[in-house]
């Protein structure tokens, strides 16, 4: 049985809101999940002003997640979907792919986690450049 961490939509049209759930791989998107780990609101929210902190112009996307249960399911072998990979990468629970927002260091991403992660990302980028150069050489050889 393959288990996945994925997003289950809860809201109405033009107002997306998702539960981050653990579900069997072959079950439908909105079917009953094995466990609900948290919520994700992709619509940018304006933070509320307080007397100590004036209103900020920077909006945020609300993510609420039970980190201990998420770590458990990842440890057991559950595979996150692409959307959940991005969310976990921003929180530092999943290794972010190069070129994503989490890899660039936004919202606690992999680049903020330390020098080791930065070196790993640089290695990926170098490897990607080598692969592109090899593909270009193969195209040149094929033309000649």
CATH topology of the largest domain: S16 Ribosomal Protein, Chain: A
> Class of the largest domain, according to the CATH hierarchy?
Alpha Beta
Task: Write the CATH homologous superfamily of the largest domain.
Answer: Ribosomal protein S16
Helix content: 25-40%
Count of the separate structural domains: 2
The overall pLDDT, averaged over residues, is 80
The CATH architecture category of the largest domain equals 2-Layer Sandwich
Question: Structural class of the helix and strand makeup?
Answer: alpha+beta
Shape type: extended
Poorly predicted regions: 107-113
Compute the number of helices.
Answer: 3
- Binned strand content: 15-25%
The Cα radius of gyration reads 19 Å
| Sheet having the most strands | 5 strands, mixed
- CA-CA gap between termini: 50 Å
**How many individual β-strands?**
5
Description:
A five-stranded mixed β-sheet has the order 4-3-2-1-5. It has helices spanning 67-76, 82-91, 115-143, and strands at residues 3-9, 18-24, 35-45, 60-65, 79-80. The chain is of the alpha+beta class and 144 residues long. It is built from three helices and five strands, in the order ββββαβαα. The chain folds into two domains: 1-80, S16 Ribosomal Protein, Chain: A, CATH 3.30.1320; 82-144, no CATH class. Helices cover 34% and strands 23% of the residues. The radius of gyration is 19 Å and the shape is extended.
């Amino acid at each position: 049985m393959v288990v996945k961490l994925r997003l289950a939509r809860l809201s109405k049209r033009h107002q997306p809101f998702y539960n981050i759930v653990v579900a069997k791989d072959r079950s439908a998107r909105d079917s009953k999940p094995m466990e609900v780990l948290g919520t994700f609101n992709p619509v940018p929210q304006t933070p509320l002003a307080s007397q100590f902190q004036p209103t900020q112009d920077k909006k945020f996307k609300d993510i609420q997640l039970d980190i201990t249960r998420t770590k458990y399911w990842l440890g057991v072998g559950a595979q996150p979907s692409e959307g959940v990979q991005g969310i976990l990468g921003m929180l530092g629970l999943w290794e972010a792919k190069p070129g994503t927002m989490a890899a660039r260091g936004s919202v606690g991403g992999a680049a903020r986690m330390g020098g080791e992660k930065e070196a790993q990302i640089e290695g990926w980028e170098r490897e990607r450049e080598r692969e592109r150069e090899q593909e270009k050489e193969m195209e040149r050889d094929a033309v000649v």
